[in-house]
Amino acid sequence: MNPLKPLLLLVGAAIVLPWDIALIPGPVPRINLQTENTGPLDEPNYTRESVLFPSVEQGLQLEAWVYRPKHPAASPPPVVVMGHGLGAQKDMGLHNYASRFADSGLAVFVFDYRTFGGSDGMPRNWISPRRHLQDWRSALLYVATGLSADGSVDAARVALWGTSFGGGHALVMAGEQKDAIRAVVPFLDGKLTLQRNLKTRGVLALLRGAAAGLHDHVRGALGQPAAYVRLAGPVGSNSLMQLDEYELESYFSKHPKVYQGGWRNQARAAFGLEASSYRPIESVPHVTAPVLYITAVKDTLCPQEAIQAAVASTPRARQIVMPCTHFDVYRGKEFEQVVEAETAFLLEHLAPEAAAATAAAAAAAAEQDSAAAEQGAAVAGGGDAHEEL
């Protein structure tokens, strides 16, 4: 027997078999093309429909929700283009933001990256900054040509909205496109994140992740199904996002009961080979449009030092600091505070006339409330005086 044969068999097994217990062999099937959360909507202030538009990858189409306001802030309405964060898709909490923007009179375009949600592409759950940026360009091209051609939106007034990893993508696109943009709790610096992970997770854990990424990459080159790692998991697990118990609960609280496209809490292991070289912060000085940064002081995923550096480097930056964790901005009072601030910011820069009218109405309402409160206090005071007599 050839003495090299056992060695070759071991090498082949290391490439093809999931040698790490944390590795999850693929494939992930694409199912649930539509769910109860993804259908058309006809609400008092807007309608929502799904559209397909071409990807840069030949033969593949991306899916988006288009929100059309019934009471537009301008005619045609400005448009907000929205993309989600790390390993996420549009049915994971983005409707709550998009519907509020549409309520204010803005058109909204919410799209899924390739291999996520309603968009085409295999293997599923493929996180890749390079591919995501290509999808952002495809989305912006469709908005500028397809939607603006029929008068649905004003392609000259576009805002880019991204959260977490998607916030980094929005900043990169803003540096390229020179559009008015805003971003939420953005991922800014893969190198800095790698350095922090080195301290918190250790060298062996990072080497394990790199080996898993290489394993997945080689499997793909050999035509084998992709290998996956857990996307979100507890602290100490071999997950892309290590979250404590509260953060995990917050993360899944924005998820639907049934995922479009058959999403799983997994991501291609190959992402580990690309993540550390992705540095949206390098695009920040090239952004000429106004930017709203929403930052969470208890965020364990986006380094605060990177966000502060980005704010300082952005020519027209505005920052709102929230005393919350990374995923709190999707629910409760934190969501209400953030969505109100974002809506005001968007109207200010995309539809200043509507913003002025909204501010005037709010001031008038506040004045009425103040007058009513004073009158109520006077009545109460009169009652007290009567009782004392």
From TrEMBL:
Q: Which UniProt keywords apply?
A: Hydrolase, Signal
MF (Gene Ontology): hydrolase activity, acting on ester bonds
Q: Does the keyword Signal apply?
A: yes
InterPro entries named in the record: AB_hydrolase_fold, FrsA_esterase, Xaa-Pro-like_dom
How far does the signal peptide extend, from start to end residue? 1-18
Which Pfam families does this UniProt record tie to the protein? Peptidase_S15 (PF02129)
SUPFAM superfamilies attached here?
A: alpha/beta-Hydrolases
Residue ranges of the Xaa-Pro dipeptidyl-peptidase-like domain? 59-327
Cited Gene3D superfamilies: alpha/beta hydrolase
Name-wise, this protein is Xaa-Pro dipeptidyl-peptidase-like domain-containing protein
